[in-house]
Write a structure and sequence with these properties.
The structure holds two protein chains of two kinds. Chain A is an alpha/beta fold. Helix content of chain A is 36%, strand content 21%. Chain A has two domains: 37 residues; 267 residues, 3-Layer(aba) Sandwich (Rossmann fold). Chain A is built from eleven helices and twelve strands. Chain B folds into two domains: 264 residues, no CATH class; 182 residues, Alpha-Beta Plaits (2-Layer Sandwich), CATH 3.30.70. The chains are: A alpha/beta, B mainly alpha. Chains A and B meet through helix 5, strand 4, helix 8, helix 9 and strand 11 of A and helix 22 of B.
C-alpha cells in the first residue's frame, strides 16, 4: 500500500470512528467488540426473562455479533408440549418474543420458528403461547408435523447417527439460534441445549431405539450448529419432566444462561437443576465428541445479579 | 305460492346446508367450534332420535321439529336438511348435464312393499338388538362416512398441494397434513353405498330415498297427513307430462292428476316446469286427499309382520363378537379389549348408541380415532376405536365427545376427560430397549401426561419404566411413542367399561431457590 493511500484510508477511518463516537457514544462501539472476546458464558439471575436477555446478550455485544444484515435466522424454542406457559414445559413465550426482536434489530431479513412437538403439533403451538408470541414479533411460524418438511443429511464423524432427516427450514436459514428451556427429564435426566435438537429432526423413535445418548451427541456434529444458546431457566421443572404434571413441579429460578458452547451451558445448568453430571450420559459424550467442554471452571463466565 | 321462488329458495337453502355439512367434515385445522357443529346436527332425524332416547332432554329432541315440519309441509326435510339427499340432487343435476336422458324421469310405480318392509326390519332390529341396520342405512351416517372416507382425503391432497406451493413463497398459513388410510377392509361398506347411491342418483334421481332410506320411508308415510302439499289444478293442466319427466322422485302420475305424497320430496321442480301453472304448493282440503293412506298402512303392517317371521338369525350371532372384560395385563402385547373413545362410557354403550357417522373420527386431531374393522366384532364395523399405533389421545382434547350427534360419546368437560380411564398401561420389560439394548430410552415416560409411566433406576445410569395404573388414563401416548417394533414394549389394554383414574399426587418441590449461581 502506498503511503498516500494509507494516509487517505486512515483519515477516512478516523473520521468514521469519530462520527460513530459522537453519534452513538463511546460505550456502544467498544464494549461490544471487547466483551465478545471476553466471556464464554453469561449467566443472569433475578429479572424477567426479557430483561435478563437484554442484559445478558449485551455482554456478547448484542445479537449483531452473530447475525449479519439480510440473513435468514432460525430461532428454535422448545414447543414440545400442549401445555400452558405456567407449566414451563415449553420455552417462555415472552423470551421468544424478545429474542426475535433482537434478531430483527440485528438486521435479520426473516426469522423462522418451529419445533417438532411430541404432543399434537398445532395444539402445542397454540397452547404454549409461542405461536402468538413469535408472530407478534414478526417471525414466521413454520409447521413441522409432517415428514414432508424433512430432508436427509449426513453427519460425518458420527458414531451412530450417520444420517438424519432435518427440517428444511434449518437447511434454508443462514443462522441458527437455540432457545431451549431447562427441565428435568425422565430419560436423559435433564434437557437443555443439546437435547433441544430433537425438535429439528423427524424420527425421534429411531434415536430412542439406537442409543439415544450417543445420538444426541452425534447430532451435535452436524454442520448447521446454533451460533448462540439462550437457555431459559426462569421457571424450571424439577421433576416429572419433560412434560410435567402440575405447577407444583415448577421452581421459579429466575435465571438464564447464554453461551456459545452448548456443552458448557448444559453443564452449568445441571448444577442449577442439582443433578450430578456423572448421572447424565449425553453431555460428557458430547464433550468427548469435541462439541464443547464440561470443565466450566476453566471458562470465563460473567455472572449478573439483577 | 309463487313458483320460481319456492324452487330457488330450496336450492339456495340446501346449498348452504350442504356447504356447512361439508365444512364440518373436512375442517382440517379444527376451526369450527363444536357448538356450531352440534347445532347443525341437532335437526338430523336419526341422530336426534338416538340422542333423545339417551338424554331425554328437550334440546335433544330436534327430531320432534322434523316431525312437525313433515306434518305441515311434507318431506321438505329430504330436500332442505338431509345432506345425503342434497348430495343426490347435486349428483342428479350432474347426471342431467352428462346425459340428457338421465334428466327424463317419468312416473314409476312405487316399491311399496319393499320400502315398508325394509323400514320394518330396521325398526325391529333396532328395538330388539341394536342400531346395526340404522348404522348402515341412516342417510346422515352414510353421508358422514362418504365425507370422512372419500371427501376428506381429497381435501387433504388439495390442501397439501397448496401448502407446498405457499411454503415455496415463504407462507405457512396452510400446514402439510400427512395422509393416513384406515383399515382397507373398512372402505368396503362406504364404497359399496357410494356406488349404489351415486349411480342411482345420477340416473334415477331420488330412487334410493324412495326405496331404501328408512328416514325417507318414515317421513313419506307421515307426509300423507301433511297440511301443505303439491296439487294439480285439473282445469289448467293440459296433460303435457313435463312435470312427470322432471320429477326426481318419479312420483307424478299426471294422467290421473295424482302425486304420490309419500315419495314427493318437495323439490318444487314440477311447479316451475309446468308451463300452465297447473301445479301449486298449498293446503289441501280433506276431500282432495286420496285414499291411498289406508293401503299404505296396511302394507306397512303386513311388511312388518312378514319380517318378524323371516328375520335373519345370523344377526344375533354378532353380539358374541363383542369383547368381554379383560383379565388384566399379559406378558406379550396381548390386548384383551379394544379401547373405546372418551365419553363412550363402555364398549357396550358405544355399540348401543353409535351409528358410525364417523364425525368423531374426522374431528380427531391426532388420528387416534379410527373406524373399527373387527375390533368390536361384526356389529361394530366402522364404529370409532382408539388405535395407539396410529396416534394418541391428546390430554387436552375432548373434541370427539363434543360433536357426537347421537350422544354415543357423551360430552366430557376437560377436567372429567382427564380423569377418564379408557384403559390401563401394561409394560413388557422383555421388549424394552433399556433391557434389550442396554441404552437409554424412556419415550413412554416422557410423553405420559400423568406420570403413570415413570423411570426407576436400572443398571448403572440406566433407568427403566415402571407403571402406576391407578393414575393411568389410557391415552396411549406411551404406546404411540414406544420405538420398539413390531410389538411395543408398552401398551394400553382397553377398559370395556371406562373407569375413573386417580389424580396424580401433587406436592410442592422441596428445593431452596438459589440466590447465587451454583457454578
Amino acid at each position: 500500500m502506498k503511503r498516500r493511500d494509507f494516509l487517505k484510508k486512515s483519515a477516512g477511518a478516523g473520521l468514521a470512528a469519530g462520527a460513530a463516537f459522537s453519534l452513538g457514544g463511546y460505550d456502544k462501539v467498544w464494549p461490544a467488540e471487547m466483551a465478545s472476546a471476553e466471556y464464554d458464558m453469561v449467566a443472569i439471575m433475578g429479572g424477567s426473562p426479557e430483561a435478563m436477555f437484554d442484559l445478558g446478550i449485551q455482554e456478547f455485544g448484542g445479537m449483531g455479533t452473530f447475525i449479519q444484515k439480510g440473513q435468514k435466522v432460525l430461532v428454535k424454542p422448545n414447543i414440545g408440549w400442549d401445555v400452558v406457559p405456567d407449566y414451563a414445559a415449553c420455552t417462555n413465550p415472552a423470551l421468544v418474543t424478545r429474542v426475535i426482536e433482537h434478531v430483527f434489530r440485528a438486521g435479520a431479513k426473516e426469522v423462522y420458528v418451529f419445533d417438532n412437538s411430541v404432543d399434537h403439533g398445532p395444539s402445542c403451538y397454540r397452547t404454549s403461547g409461542i405461536e402468538r408470541a413469535a408472530k407478534a414479533a414478526g417471525a414466521k411460524v413454520v409447521p413441522a408435523h409432517s415428514e414432508r418438511y424433512y430432508q436427509e443429511v449426513n453427519i460425518p464423524g458420527a458414531l451412530v447417527l450417520k444420517k438424519v432427516k432435518v427440517h428444511e427450514v434449518l437447511l434454508d436459514t443462514d443462522v441458527f439460534v437455540n432457545v431451549p428451556i431447562l427441565k428435568d427429564h425422565d430419560t436423559t435426566r435433564m434437557t437443555g441445549c443439546l437435547k433441544n435438537m430433537m425438535g429439528v429432526i423427524w424420527d425421534r423413535r429411531w434415536w430412542h431405539s439406537n442409543n439415544l445418548d450417543q445420538c444426541i451427541a452425534d447430532y451435535g456434529l452436524f454442520e448447521k450448529k446454533p451460533v448462540i444458546h439462550i437457555l431459559d431457566c426462569y421457571n424450571v421443572m424439577f421433576r416429572n419432566g419433560p412434560r410435567g404434571v402440575s405447577r407444583q413441579d415448577i421452581v421459579q429460578m429466575k435465571s438464564q444462561i447464554i453461551a456459545r458452547d452448548w456443552v458448557a451451558a448444559d453443564t452449568a445448568a445441571t448444577k442449577l437443576l442439582g443433578v450430578e453430571l456423572e448421572k447424565i450420559e449425553h453431555i460428557p459424550l458430547a464433550a468427548k465428541m469435541g462439541l464443547g467442554t464440561t470443565n466450566i471452571e476453566s471458562l470465563n463466565i460473567k455472572r449478573i445479579q439483577m | 305460492m309463487k313458483a320460481s321462488f319456492l324452487r330457488q329458495f330450496r336450492i339456495l337453502f340446501s346449498t348452504l346446508i350442504f356447504i356447512c355439512f361439508f365444512i364440518i367434515f373436512v375442517d382440517l385445522q379444527n376451526i369450527i367450534p363444536e357448538k356450531y357443529i352440534k347445532a347443525l346436527l341437532s335437526l338430523q332425524f336419526v341422530p336426534s332420535v338416538l340422542a333423545y332416547l339417551s338424554l331425554k332432554t328437550v334440546l335433544s329432541a330436534g327430531f320432534a321439529l322434523v316431525l312437525v315440519l313433515t306434518l305441515l309441509t311434507g318431506r321438505t326435510y329430504c330436500s332442505f336438511l338431509c345432506p345425503l339427499g342434497i348430495g343426490q340432487d347435486i349428483f342428479s343435476r350432474i347426471g342431467g348435464r352428462i346425459r340428457k336422458k338421465f334428466r327424463r324421469f317419468g312416473y314409476k310405480k312405487p316399491f311399496t312393499i319393499f320400502r315398508y318392509s325394509l323400514l320394518g326390519i330396521t325398526l325391529l332390529v333396532s328395538v330388539i338388538w341394536g342400531f346395526y341396520m340404522l348404522t348402515l342405512l341412516d342417510p346422515y351416517s352414510i353421508f358422514g362416512r362418504f365425507m370422512t372416507f372419500f371427501a376428506k382425503p381429497v381435501v387433504v391432497i388439495i390442501n397439501n398441494f397448496f401448502a407446498v406451493i405457499l411454503n415455496r413463497f415463504d407462507m405457512y398459513g396452510l400446514h402439510h397434513i400427512p395422509l393416513t388410510a384406515y383399515h382397507l377392509q373398512v372402505y368396503a361398506i362406504p364404497a359399496a353405498f357410494f356406488l349404489l347411491i351415486g349411480i342411482l342418483s345420477l340416473t334415477k334421481g331420488r330412487l334410493y330415498c324412495n326405496t331404501v332410506c328408512p328416514v325417507g320411508t318414515f317421513l313419506g308415510f307421515l307426509s300423507k297427513f301433511s297440511l301443505f302439499r303439491i296439487r294439480f289444478d285439473e282445469n289448467k293442466c293440459t296433460r303435457c307430462g313435463r312435470c312427470a319427466v322432471g320429477c326426481k322422485s318419479s312420483c307424478i302420475d299426471f294422467l290421473n292428476y295424482n302425486i304420490d305424497v309419500s315419495r314427493c320430496v318437495d323439490c318444487f321442480n314440477c311447479i316451475e316446469i309446468c308451463p300452465d301453472n297447473a301445479l301449486s304448493y298449498g293446503i289441501v282440503h280433506s276431500n282432495e286427499k286420496n285414499t291411498e293412506t289406508d293401503e299404505g298402512k296396511r302394507k306397512f303392517i303386513a311388511g312388518s309382520l312378514a319380517m318378524l317371521i323371516g328375520l335373519p338369525a345370523s344377526l344375533k350371532s354378532q353380539d358374541r363378537n363383542v369383547p368381554v372384560p379383560g383379565k388384566g395385563s399379559t406378558v406379550k402385547e396381548n390386548k384383551t379389549s379394544p379401547v373405546c373413545p372418551p365419553g363412550a362410557g363402555s364398549i357396550a354403550d358405544l355399540q348401543k348408541n353409535c351409528i358410525a357417522c364417523s364425525l368423531c373420527i374426522t374431528v380427531c386431531p391426532t388420528n387416534v380415532l379410527q373406524p373399527a374393522w373387527l375390533e368390536y366384532g361384526v356389529a361394530g364395523i366402522m364404529q370409532p376405536v382408539m388405535n395407539y399405533h396410529k396416534g394418541f389421545c391428546n390430554y387436552n382434547c375432548n373434541s370427539c365427545t363434543e360433536v357426537c350427534p347421537t350422544n354415543a360419546l357423551r360430552p366430557l368437560v376437560l377436567e372429567a376427560k382427564r380423569l377418564t380411564q379408557l384403559g390401563k398401561v401394561n409394560f413388557i420389560k422383555d421388549n424394552c430397549i433399556v433391557k434389550t439394548e442396554k441404552t437409554a430410552c424412556g419415550a413412554c415416560a416422557e410423553a405420559c401426561p400423568t406420570k403413570a409411566v415413570y423411570m426407576v433406576p436400572y443398571e448403572g445410569n440406566l433407568r427403566i419404566p415402571e407403571t402406576n395404573t391407578d393414575i393411568c388414563v389410557g391415552c396411549g401416548q406411551c404406546e404411540y411413542a414406544c420405538p420398539v417394533t413390531p410389538f411395543k414394549a408398552i401398551f394400553v389394554d382397553g377398559n370395556p367399561v371406562h373407569q375413573v383414574a386417580q389424580k396424580p399426587v401433587d406436592k410442592e418441590v422441596d428445593i431452596e431457590i438459589p440466590t447465587e449461581f451454583p457454578f
